[in-house]
Amino acid sequence: MSEPLKGNVLLVEDDRAVAKVLGALLTQAGLTVHTAWSGEEALTLLRQMPIDVVVSDVRMPGMSGMELLTEVTRSCPEVPVVLMTAHGTVPMAVEAMRAGAADFILKPFDRQEILFTLRKTLLRAQGEPPPAVLRTGAFVGRSAAMAEVEALLTRAAAGTATVLLRGESGTGKELAARALHDASPRRSGPFVKLHCAALPETLLESELFGYEKGAFTGAAARKPGRVELAHGGTLFLDEIGDITLSVQVKLLRLIQEREFERLGGTQTLKVDVRFVAATHRSLEEMVKRGEFREDLFYRLNVVPVGLPPLRARPEDIEPLARHFLEAHAKANGRQPFTLTPEALQTLQAQPWPGNVRQLQNFMERLVVLSDGPLLTGGDVARELARQPGLTPSFAPSAPASPPLPPTAPSGTEPGTLDAQRRGTERQALLDALQRARDNRTLAARLLGVSRRTLYNKLEEHGLL
């Protein structure tokens, strides 16, 4: 018997009878269900409470499910959306997946089918870091290293060879994969991604290859996998180094023969897909340890492209910082900002272990938390001091504004290290909420945590 599901579901359904039945089913499975009768109401609820997954009908009066998907992807990119439709076809599935849907369910739905879909969606959401809101910028810069990457991607885009993207987290591997697809003759086809590290082996296989009705408990209808959805386009396999040996065997056959079978099926299907894989791990070392098949490694490593960490191209920090500053100011309705030379020096002195993604998030934090329009070394140093693992390596001429004195929470001895830590944490929460005008999603992004973590901290400090 499978474990009960845990999490908050936002059910968006205009048919009250369907909502009642489905809500009772999900509640019985262990989920906490919040119901919205329209897309507009759903967006309001998303701003007010922590939600782990949205389940929405496609056809509704007013805002449709596809339009809601677009808004959720823009404002709460870490929240997966599962769409329900009575008119489910593979073309609609392709459109939904390309628009950012986590999955889709066909009406009339089967109990096991919908619970199976939600289980894998929640597992995948827990395993994937929230995507950046602004995906542009990884190729902004003037370094020779990134010029070489762009040249490689441009040449590789014209062909069909498999590309293996190597690099640390946050260096822009998904952006590189998208750029490769957009520059290729397959640009009009789907770009489908699969995060291989986010799912256990059994769910990964069904997600990759799809399944036939009755293939396992919960398989109430035939379901196309990501390979099938990517037909005519590009399949991006992120964190390919995390798949098991048994899945590696099936993936090898898929790449070699361009054919596969759905789980529980006997029909061999042909597929026209271009493969792009990415990993932060050393596949060569994994091959030596017997953790990764050597033949699969050579199949993947046809066109290797290494994305350098930000610390290896410090000359790109300035153009990247200015790019993100302009983009985030526009996105947040702020006037343009200007960086002083001291501010730039302080930014360039940082190691940025999270690479471009960390710099991007930091610049958004500066935009929201600074009065502007001039950002000084003191402004940068103040926000660096609030970031775990970062400290200002350059002493700006203008000292940072002193933080408000923390208040020791009840039950904690004033003056102790724990009291000071909790007091500082509470003040950071209050500051983020004030700057974000009580927008919890934005506050979580400013603090660099998930919405779930933010709500847990707010409850812990009595701020809900």
UniProtKB/TrEMBL annotation:
CDD domains: AAA. Keywords: ATP-binding, DNA-binding, Nucleotide-binding, Phosphoprotein, Transcription, Transcription regulation, Two-component regulatory system. The modification 4-aspartylphosphate is found at D57. Residues 8-122 form the Response regulatory domain. The keyword ATP-binding applies. One of its GO terms (molecular function) is sequence-specific DNA binding. The keyword Phosphoprotein applies. InterPro entries: AAA+_ATPase, AAA_lid_NorR, CheY-like_superfamily, Homeodomain-like_sf, HTH_Fis, P-loop_NTPase, Sig_transdc_resp-reg_receiver, Sigma_54_int. Residues 399-408 have a biased composition (Pro residues). Residues 139-368 form the Sigma-54 factor interaction domain. This is Sigma-54 dependent DNA-binding response regulator FrgC. It comes from Stigmatella aurantiaca (strain DW4/3-1). The gene is frgC.
